[in-house]
Amino acid sequence: MALVVQKYGGTSVGTIERIHRVADRIERAVKDGNRVVVVLSAMSGETDRLLKLAHEMTALPDERELDMLLSTGERVTIALLAMALRGRGLDARSFTGRQVGIMTDNAHTKARITRVTADRIREALERGVTPVVAGFQGINQQSDVTTLGRGGSDLTAVALAGALRADRCVIFTDVDGVYTTDPNIVPAARRLEKISYEEMLEMASLGAKVLQSRSVEFAAKFNVPLEVNSSFKEGKGTLVTREDTDMEAVAVSGVTGDRNQAKVTIVGVPDKPGIAAALLGTVAKANIVVDMIIQNVSHASLTDFSFTIPRVDVKRAVPIIEAASKDIGAKSVSVTDAIAKVSLVGVGMRSHSGVAAKMFEILAREGVNIMMISTSEIKISCVIDEKYLELAMRALHTAFELDRGSSGDRSGVSSTVR
Ligand code: ADP
Ligand code: ASP
Ligand code: MG
Predict the structure, then answer these.
(1) Strand pairing partners for 7?
(2) What is the mean pLDDT of the chain?
(3) For 90-111, what is the mean pLDDT?
(4) What domains can be seen in the chain, in order of their start residue?
(5) 316 Cβ partners below 8 Å, 6+ apart?
(6) Is the pLDDT of residue 387 over 70?
(7) Best mutation site among 40, 136, 170, 182 for ligand 1 pocket (most ligand atoms within 8 Å of CB)
């Protein structure tokens, strides 16, 4: 009897009718002899609605209270689905993150899972009960509710699959797999039969929201067999697996776009040791993740220092950065969120050279100015003016001949905007 974790995203449980369809699918899986653990998101749009309410209430909502509020969305769907399943004669029970022992650190709104006990799930399964678990939420050491960052239900599902040593973790969503490009933006996108954990992790961190990046990180670390599939139709999805040699055959397998960053520039920074540490140290202490960093050549012992941070953290970050800049004697701080990051991803970049040069050439030909560059073994990212993002993505997509190839092969590029 296989143990399967099935996660359904917001669109899949967005209406009563859709919750019924999800219940049908679960009923079939159980009747086929599987033991199923269900993980759900809130109804589509609900988490955004709650966030908006909080920001209407106050400019800078307290993060503990924000988590208390955001965690309610998933309570609604788990209870409704459990009712639907019970209505079909299945013994199903809903559980919150606390009830199934999703223990996290204290980083409200982006908490990291520290431990998963899953005792109540094991008990339920032993009694033939189908557990329906609220995604996206856990509790910290004080038993306060925490949330796992946007898209965090994917992480709940993968973490539970890891803890329960499930045979499979399937992420059911509104597309039938990981595509060569966001199929909602580029209809010519092609579904990938499989993708390596490593590439998927880069793509997810660089804009492909089909899987939350931390869920991929977790799956890779604990070898959780992960699959993305459609909750609306039957058929093949995408397997996220260990890398195999044919994956290196193409240099680039994905293009992503990310609009979720903002650029901070500190002007007139004294060019001496310890400055970067002082500035970035205070930002890190506030739990704000710095992505790209650039320091200009200094003139007359003064330099400019730029870095990117998540847009959602700008309001919180500005006073902290302004205070730190004042302390080190910098002249001024400016922040813009009219930037975007365009990236190429592919494990084949390890064995193919010239990808970066070609990328820069193409952006130059399109008249797109590059503000920042960062590379790793399997990706290249450029920060550009936000208004050129889709142009840049399309140009790169064509220039790397990535819209060619038959469905399911790996010679494509994936372009995604978030
Ligand atoms: P859920 O609510 O089920 O968690 P999400 O909205 O978080 O779903 O993720 C699914 C969406 O991810 C798709 O509707 C699609 O627009 C987007 N997406 C972005 N990049 C890709 C990609 N490379 N392949 C498939 N979907 C992608
Ligand atoms: N409801 C949460 C969100 O919208 C978590 C999730 O859907 O995965 O981010
Ligand atoms: Mg999601």
Answers:
(1) 39, 171
(2) 92
(3) 97
(4) 3-174 (3.40.1160.10), 262-336 (3.30.2130.10)
(5) 60, 286, 288
(6) yes
(7) 182
